[in-house]
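Open question from group meeting: does this chain pack into something compact, or does most of it stay loose? Before anyone orders reagents, we agreed to write out a predicted structure and look at it together. Recording both the input and the output here so the notebook holds the full record.
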Amino acid sequence: MTFVMPDSSRPRLVGSAGEAHDRGMQPTYSPPRAGISLTGLEKSFGPVHAVRGIDLDIAPGETVAILGPNGAGKSTTIDMVLGLSRPDRGEVALFGMNPTDAVAAGAIGGMLQTGSLIGQLTIRELVRLTASLYPNPHGVDEALALTGLADIADRRTEKLSGGQTQRVRFATAIVADPELLVLDEPTVALDVEGRHAFWSAMRNFARDGKTVIFATHYLEEADAFADRIVLMAQGRIVADGTSTEIKARVGMKSIRATLPNAPMDKVSALAGVATAEQHGDAVILTCTDSDTALRGLLAAYPDAHDIEVLGANLEAAFLALTGDPVDNLITQEALQ
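Structure tokens returned:
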């Protein structure tokens, strides 16, 4: 399990953590009115400026994806939200509390990439132990059912597959009944079926008005499940909005058409076409002006058929806004 240790504090439990806080020291906590506010956050590690002045407000009940290439500052930002790292400058406010008090109040659940589960315990025993560390936890059976673990609840933690281990981390994160759930690459060890099951459980959790922040390399997950996407590059926020809004910022559309033996030099020279590629009998045109390009394509090649005009996808927006190759991002095409 992972210990979450806010600076200048003893160990505190966040989701998959494992050290009790002093119940006599719990701050007063009631359902939140304010949301999450990050103001002027900066964090450096020696000469490396990991986070360079982030301002971000998240309303209660939002599901927000944080995307960015490796080194963008995603994990550092998450660490500051959880109280694992203190900003050099700026402030983190979680439902009107600082991270240390929010953790102690059981307002935050975290599912991190690092750390292992405590051994020699069954899943049920581990989730029950975790629940005992919080002031107002969910029922253990409820957490097990929500995460699809009820049928294997009596299995020992050292006997689990990678996907089952991830589900146990999820269960220990939500058993606190937190108002904010923070997830760092939550489905990285899951297969396609496991990821669908995870996000189905996550939708059920968020349905109660909970706030969710997750960082992921799976673009499709951000596109499908986030109310809002925050795109980071080089320690800064470069885009913030719905998936549709971020795609619209790119502006380019693409045209796909079946056109066997197309002369690509002439197709790429059509007005409104930025680039042209051939894939078998199909041509794919990336356009600066799709209307002009489509008219020119049909005028020059009236036998073109099976024509589709597509807006920019999230991968294209990512590349355009971060200037980073997508090598570090996992797409469904790669998995198939």
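Observations to bring back to the group:
The chain has a mean pLDDT of 84.
Residues 293 and 302 are 13 Å apart (CA to CA).
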